[in-house]
Write a structure and sequence with these properties.
2 copies of one chain form a homodimer.
Chain A: H1 8-20, E1 24-25, H2 26-36, H3 45-57, E2 61-66, E3 74-79, H4 81-108, H5 112-115
Antiparallel strand pairs in A: 1-3, 2-3
The structure holds a DNA duplex (30 and 30 nucleotides).
DNA sequence: TCTACACATATAGATTATCTATGCAACTTT
DNA sequence: AAAGTTGCATAGATAATCTATATGTGTAGA
């Protein structure tokens, strides 16, 4: 089983959500995830980039180069209308599973402050 | 990308959570998931059983046959102490990702009644 | 100026996870 | 007796993911 770091259900949702808050690039996305999760989620570049490329061929995101003089160039991504729809779908699925888990945890008597 | 029905992050958590509420068997787990999710999550037997077997080799669950006379036999599963620990870990990871998504969705201005 | 480190992107190859399709068999309902 | 539901299972194909590795630029400090 071995828990994966970039877990299927959430990768797309997280990336699309980040891009909904503004264009970004690979390295920055990794940092945002680490910072926003309080250092609990650490994505590897070697795992993220292939995912980004796949999302691009799906038409969910688009890229453009940003290369100001004297600065390192960065490949920025923006979310497309198709990506917005995909995110909406992912969001619904996530919440469906979340509600399922919450109901199971409540029944099992797990503490609400964690399951909140 | 194509969203998977038995998605990595949640399969183990859902199964272990169900077994925390009492022993169960494959077919019943599928039904519980369908009913509890309001028909939104439909797991296939062909996908579930291999997962159950894998969880068993991980030592997270144990099986035993239940075959009363005149009834179909069922392979029941119970969660092990190792499984309880695994669930606790999965639960934390799920909530970490959930909080991350909620924070991103709040920032993006998605309606709270969905993101709740 | 040399070195080390953070920044930034990328791919190949191996491994693992998952889906689809199919098979079997017993019980139950019509 | 036929059809449907219950119940478990695996093979083969496909897809997703990880590990390791590669490349190059800019910056800070010795």
């Amino acid at each position: 089983m071995s828990t994966k770091s970039l877990t299927g259900a959430s990768i797309a949702a997280v990336i699309l959500s980040i891009l909904s808050n503004g264009d970004s690039y690979g390295y920055d996305i990794i940092n945002q995830v680490r910072e926003r999760s309080g250092d609990e989620i650490e994505w590897k570049a070697g795992s993220l980039y292939p995912v980004m490329h796949r999302m691009q061929t799906n038409g969910w995101i688009e890229d453009y180069w940003h290369e100001p003089k004297g600065e390192r160039r960065r490949r920025y991504y923006r979310i497309t209308p198709k990506g917005v729809k995909a995110l909406e779908k992912e969001r619904k699925q996530w919440m469906t599973t979340h509600r399922l888990l919450l109901s199971l945890w409540t029944e099992a008597g797990f503490s609400p402050e964690v399951a909140q």
